[in-house]
């Protein structure tokens, strides 16, 4: 079972990690670590949640830990070496995966908000599965997502200078933003 699931979920988990971590190399490392954790903890898997939800929960916590460690390293590096460092070519290319206004909005979100947005918009997970992954109830996730959706739209408008976004929100349409639909 685990071998089949590993192959079918590897790409999904990799894309999820790329979006959470913003770096392909870190995402590749994370995927390896996540599947090792899943393999060693497979005896803890309970069939009351889907295998996908269980795996995404492991991925979420692993990415969260990596982001925390990265933040600590960045703080230490700033203390030790305060000079500005130019982005690598890979970092520049990865940043272009998102439009500039969406990238701006994503950078302004907390890790938890980014996770919710990635799971709902990019991974297209239903609210029930997201609730399982986050360990929250479905209605709370829906409410949090609605507030997050409004926040992201406001941040995108802010970055774009407020052009044409007001008209779609007053008509009740769900605007498509930069190749993704924030629904």
Low-confidence stretches: 163-179
Give the topology string: H per helix, E per strand. Answer: HHHHHHHHHEE
| Biggest sheet character | 2 strands, antiparallel
Termini Cα gap: 34 Å
Spatial arrangement of strands, main beta sheet: 1-2
Please give the number of β-strands.
2
Mean pLDDT: 78
How would you describe the overall organization of this protein?
The chain is mostly helical and 183 residues long. 73% of the residues lie in helices and 2% in strands. It has 9 helices and 2 strands, in the order H-H-H-H-H-H-H-H-H-E-E. It has helices spanning 2-21, 24-40, 51-80, 89-95, 100-108, 111-122, 127-134, 138-160, 165-171, and strands spanning 176-177, 180-181. Strands 1-2 form a two-stranded antiparallel ribbon. A hairpin with a 2-residue loop joins strand 1 (176-177) and strand 2 (180-181). Helix 1 (2-21) runs parallel beside helix 3, helix 2 (24-40) crosses helix 3 (51-80) and helix 5 (100-108) packs across helix 8 (138-160). The radius of gyration is 18 Å and the shape is globular. The protein starts with a helix and ends with a strand. Mean pLDDT is 78; it is low at 163-179.
What is shown here, in short?
The protein is 73% helix and 2% strand. With 183 residues, it is an all-alpha fold.
């Amino acid at each position: 079972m685990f071998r089949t699931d590993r192959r079918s979920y590897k790409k999904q988990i990799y894309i999820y990690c790329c979006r959470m971590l913003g770096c392909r190399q870190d995402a590749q490392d994370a995927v390896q670590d996540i599947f090792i954790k899943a393999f060693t903890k497979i005896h803890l898997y309970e069939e009351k949640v889907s295998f996908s939800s269980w795996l995404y929960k492991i991925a979420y916590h692993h990415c969260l830990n990596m982001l925390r460690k990265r933040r600590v390293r960045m703080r230490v590096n700033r203390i030790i070496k305060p000079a500005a460092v130019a982005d690598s070519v890979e970092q520049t290319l990865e940043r272009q995966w998102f439009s500039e206004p969406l990238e701006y909005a994503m950078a302004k979100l907390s890790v938890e908000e980014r996770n919710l947005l990635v799971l709902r918009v990019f991974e297209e997970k239903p609210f029930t599965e997201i609730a399982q992954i986050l360990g929250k109830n479905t209605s709370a996730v829906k409410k949090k997502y609605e507030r997050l959706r409004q926040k992201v739209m406001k941040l995108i408008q802010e970055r774009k200078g407020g052009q044409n976004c007001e008209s779609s929100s007053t008509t009740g349409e769900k605007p498509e933003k930069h190749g993704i639909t924030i629904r």
